[in-house]
Amino acid sequence: MTEIKHILETEGGLSQVSVERAISEIRAGRPVALKSGRSHVLVIGVEALDSRLAAVLAPLAKRSAKLVLPAPRLRRLGLDRSKPGAIALPHLDLGRIATLSLEVGARIDAPVAALGKLDVAALELARVALVLPAIVVIPVSANSIEGQGLLRVEAKFIEAYRAVGLRDLNIVGRAPVPLEGAPDTEFVIFRGGEGLRDQVAVIVGKPDFAEPVTVRLHSACLTGDLFGSLKCDCGDQLRHTARHMAETGGGVLLYLDQEGRGNGLSNKMRAYRLQAQGFDTYDADEVLGFDHDQRGFDFAALMLKQLGISRVQVMTNNPLKIAALEAAGLEVVSDKRIMGRQTDQNIRYLASKRDRAGHFIEMDDGHALAGVKD
To answer: Which candidate in 127, 216, 261, 295 is catalytic?
Structure first.
């Protein structure tokens, strides 16, 4: 057993395991203890905080709890801020916490303090756990939580979690998977790089990796890719890409588990509800506390490198993806547009991406199917 422990410690495994357990605890609605030096805090996601749990935590809080919120949510509360902050919670008032965290028309009701190291780690834990980025943080002593069965995690492990995961990105399986319109296709499965999720490289045809390879980075969209939602153009883009690659010498489509621009499926549905109330896609995310795009594409670039690809022709409308591949050391020799249907239901969404995020999208009053464009 000593040898196993040594392997884990030398490869960063124990730190990753502790964070992965913390992700599971937070997603399950259980508090986690974070520590840095002699400082300890209990953290719990706001969406999991109910009256029973609040009653259990209240004796530990002792009027010292705080609500940690990201900058976008604080801006929605009426502050001009570019950094996250903390609001004092003299009592674990569930109504007040819910109002400050989620209510559309809420306004700040107390001073906002800068975050400490443990507060920052708590917010990052929420991000990688794909829960609402609103966290109750309770400073505690080590003795007060002894014997409570709480998971304890070093803040520095959470800070390093993504970087260590990138280092451990590996191919864990591959197999031919014929697709409609692209029958000569292989799926290559990667593990690591982005939390506990697997990522897929779909190799269409027989591209020559010694030459510039046609590539698309496609973030998973359950509603569009699988169910054909009319609210977005994702499913069309996915299928157009595979067909285009099959018809033009092949390519690699990276199918990335980054639902809802990296916010997760539950938060995507919260954003959809806000969109139904009149918010555009970016304002809806900001109400929930998210920036315009939470995704990272560094692990996508590493997937391409592991496949032996160094030069790419990118199929995208998103300038951030082009910049991310170039920043990761890949040579982007060209880029092409990939268009989907424009419908009554997605026209505002597409216009918002064009006008607010700089996507290369041509609007068509006829709502035509555009396909691939140079």
So the answer is: 295
Q: Is 295 a catalytic residue?
A: yes
C-alpha to C-alpha distances, 14 to 11, 18, 146, nearest whole angstrom = 8, 6, 21
pTM given for the model: 0.89
DSSP assigned state of 114: P
For the chain, list the domains and their CATH numbers: 2-160 (3.90.870.10), 169-258+295-373 (3.40.50.10990)
Hey, which residues does 69 pair with through a beta bridge? 85
Distance CA 122, CA 23 (A): 11
Question: Would residue 119 show up in a list of annotated catalytic residues for this protein?
Answer: no
Could you tell me if residue 306 is left (phi over 0), alpha (psi between -120 and 50 degrees) or otherwise beta? alpha
Q: Give which of 341, 345, 336 is closest to 370, Cα–Cα.
A: 341
Instruction: Please say whether the beta carbons of 258 and 217 come within 8 A.
Output: no
Quick one: three-class SS letters along 210-270?
CCCEEEEEEECCHHHHHCCCCCCCHHHHHHHHHHHHHHCCCEEEEEECCHHHHCCHHHHHH
- One digit per residue, the tens of pLDDT, for the chain of length 374 reads 455 454 445 445 678 889 999 999 999 999 999 999 999 999 999 999 999 999 999 999 988 999 999 999 999 999 999 999 999 999 999 999 999 999 999 999 999 999 999 999 999 999 999 999 999 999 999 988 888 889 999 999 999 998 888 888 899 999 999 999 999 999 999 998 776 789 999 999 999 999 999 999 999 999 999 999 999 999 999 999 999 999 999 999 999 999 999 999 999 999 999 999 999 999 999 999 999 999 989 999 999 999 999 999 999 999 999 999 999 999 999 999 998 889 899 999 999 999 998 998 888 765 544 456 65
Among residues 257, 283, 293, 298, the one annotated as catalytic is: 293
Separation between Cα atoms, residue 242 and residue 238, nearest integer Å: 7
